[in-house]
Amino acid sequence: MSEAEQRQEEEAVEPVESDNGGVPVESGSEQRTRIEALEAEKKQYFEQLLRLKADYENYRKRVDREKPELIRHGKTELLEKMIPLYDVLLSAHDQIARRAGDGEGAAADELVRGLEMIFQEFTKLFKAEGVCAIAAVGERYDFDRHEVLGQVETDEYDEGVVVEELQRGYLIGGRVFRAAKVRIAKRRTL
Questions:
Q1: What is the pLDDT of residue 15?
Q2: What is the pLDDT of residue 57?
Q3: Closest residue by Cα to residue 87 from 189, 190, 180
Q4: Does residue 13 belong to any structural domain of this protein?
């Protein structure tokens, strides 16, 4: 008999009668092999568990870092939708105030007061969220904050100074949300 055949015969499971009801019992080398396989599998599962735990911790830290940014982004989106509404109300207020000044009556005065109350609430909200209007008229042109839509020849202002605001600009948290649309002064040509 060859050595290989001998080893196979030694490693073969032979049923051994015992007090366990005739269930085959593994030999010592088979038990060691099986234990080693189970230990390797246990080690593999433990390493996988450690990797999953580390991945989860990294995920949790990333979510904690990104959460304020997501909240800020959501607020910005809401404010983006509110500012045009504010602009329309402001325009309506200016028109109604002009008519009230022309003697249109008590109804126009009441409407103006109502709009002013709305503006107070908008102002509180904007202040709480870090929104402020960009100063324009009388300020030097700033390409980051002003969008020039035209020039006006005048001697009242130095060249490059904003003389008219066509649409209000806004900052959110110190960053330009919408540039003010303006006209700037140009020296009068002779």
A1: 47
A2: 95
A3: 180
A4: no
In a domain, 17, yes or no: no
Contact predicate 148/163, CB 8 Å: no
DSSP bridge partners of 151 = 184
Q: Is 183 within the bounds of a domain?
A: yes
Measured between alpha carbons, how far is residue 95 from residues 54, 77, 84, 90, 100 in Å?
A: 62, 29, 17, 9, 9
Strands 180-186 and 162-167: antiparallel
Give the chain's domain count.
2
- Residue located via tokens 């107070």: 120
E strand or H helix at 159 = none
Range of the domain at 154: 130-190
Among candidate residues 109, 129, 149, the one where a domain is terminated? 129
Q: How far is CA 107 from the centre of its chain?
A: 44
